[in-house]
Amino acid sequence: MNIDGLDLNLIRVLHALFETRGVSAAAARLGLSQPAVSNALRRLRAAFGDPLFVRGRGGMAPTPRAEALAPQIAQAMRQIEAALAGGDGVDPAAIREPVLIGCGDEEMLICGPAIRAALDAAGCAATLQFLPLDPDYRAEVLWRHRLALTFSAMVYAPEGLMQRKLYEETLVCLVRADHPAVQGLDLEAYLAAGHMLVAPLGGPPQGIVDAWLRERGRARDIRLVSPSFGAAAWLVRDTGLIASVPRRHALRQPFGDALRLLPLPMALPPFAIHMFWSERYDRDPLNRWLRDLAARAVGEARRGAGEAAPP
């Protein structure tokens, strides 16, 4: 039989007849009239070249051809229903493709261990691969891969991306222990000092602090720009510059008494780290599973460190 010549709506009728063994009962199940089901049965008989059902005791009895078709049709219907339902069942152990996360090294250091541990706990042995951010926030990667996310301090999602807030962060000053700022850091002293800026995306040397200063007609003296938060502590130690970095990163600096953390000399509001994914996979069960796992992992890691849960 050429399936292109078959009205596949007839398969629903055939499946209902298999289960109910009666035209009236099948019509009631399908929400059709009895004549409509009778007409469908006539068309099925013509298509298969077989009576399929004959009247017998207790209803309509299937022919041998119908009995052979019944389990295959039932399996096909289950598969179609599962596909239309979205296939919500996710088996983490069956995942083979890598989990891709685009982010700066700051988010990688904060979120990476927690997400890897959460994947392991779920029985998912897939590779967790971090990708550096680029100016479009890995939008193409998010579009092409179901298991792909981006973490960024970007406020608004570009077209085609969805977003979810993960946590809030504040900035502090990281300075060498012998820096004059340790004795007191007001705005004028801050502006008179030399600074380093971490710019994961490159581009013009400006950040949140610089935007705040520019609105007030001021500017700081940026002497060094690095793409890496991970290198910030080393650069501060070896150059004597001030780095205005996320507090959580500053707390992880490895040099103990050699460096100091100071509050910013201006009242900047916290900024949020968001998780982004492609609109293409917004309702995809596998992508949704990964988003929920990542959000829980980051939240639990922060609670374990005595911090508030993500909003």
Note the main attributes of this structure.
5-stranded mixed β-sheet
Q: In angstroms, what is the radius of gyration?
A: 31 Å
Major beta-sheet overview: 5 strands, mixed
**What is the straight-line distance between the termini?**
58 Å
Number of helical segments?
A: 11
Would you tell me the structural class of the helices and strands? alpha/beta
Mean pLDDT metric = 86
Principal-axis shape: rod-shaped
Question: What percentage of the residues does DSSP assign to strands (E)?
Answer: 15-25%
E-strand count: 12
Q: Strands of the largest sheet, in order across it?
A: 4-3-5-12-6
The percentage helix is 40-55%
N-to-C SSE series? HHHEEHEHEHEEEHEHEHEHEEH
Poorly predicted residue ranges: none
If you had to describe this structure to a student in words, what would you say it looks like?
- It is a single chain.
- This protein is an alpha/beta fold and 311 residues long.
- The chain contains eleven helices and twelve strands.
- The chain has a five-stranded mixed sheet. It has a five-stranded mixed sheet with strand order 9-8-10-7-11.
- A hairpin with a 2-residue loop joins strand 1 and strand 2 (59-62).
- The radius of gyration is 31 Å and the shape is rod-shaped.
- The protein starts with 8 loop residues before the first helix and ends in a 7-residue tail after the last helix.
